[in-house]
């Protein structure tokens, strides 16, 4: 299962390649999981919140569909695409709890301190506060890796 961070969609090449190669090598089906957070604060009014939710879902869903198309080209099989609203780490943990077939969680991480303002919140929460809840390993793939570097380790 590859956790897709909506704030870093343009930097998913290495994590997606790793996840695809791992799925192909193990005979598994890849799942792409995207979680967007609900609107907060001033957008809590019902009509504004609904509009923002709809836009976030549409935009993120479109981006996930593009990643899924790329993944299908690599694995030969369309991945499952799961789009959720809520706290990213909690939603990922809930999916893991609900599906015993999930055997690995893959997250992309910007390992350079200045890159993109630090690690994505979903990865930080999974690796810190939710780590004790996980029953599967978490594989961290540095986003700056080249295709040949990913190929060497997958």
From TrEMBL:
SUPFAM superfamilies named among the record's database cross-references: Adenine nucleotide alpha hydrolases-like
UniProt superkingdom: Bacteria
UniProt-listed InterPro entries: Rossmann-like_a/b/a_fold (IPR014729)
The protein, known as: Universal stress protein
Taxonomic source organism: Magnetospirillum moscoviense
């Amino acid at each position: 299962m590859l956790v897709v961070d909506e704030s870093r969609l343009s930097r998913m090449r290495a994590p997606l390649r790793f996840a695809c190669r791992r799925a192909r090598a193990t005979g598994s089906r890849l799942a792409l999981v995207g979680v967007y957070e609900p609107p907060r604060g001033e957008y809590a009014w019902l009509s504004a919140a609904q509009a923002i939710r709809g836009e976030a879902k549409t935009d993120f869903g479109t981006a996930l569909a593009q990643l899924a198309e790329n993944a299908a080209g690599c694995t030969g099989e369309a991945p499952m695409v799961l789009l959720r609203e809520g706290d990213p780490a909690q939603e990922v943990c809930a999916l893991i709890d609900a599906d015993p077939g999930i055997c690995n969680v893959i997250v992309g991480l910007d390992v350079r301190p200045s890159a993109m303002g630090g690690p994505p919140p979903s990865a930080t929460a999974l690796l810190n506060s939710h780590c004790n809840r996980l029953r599967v390993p978490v594989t961290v793939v540095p986003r700056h890796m080249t295709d040949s570097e990913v190929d060497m380790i997958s």
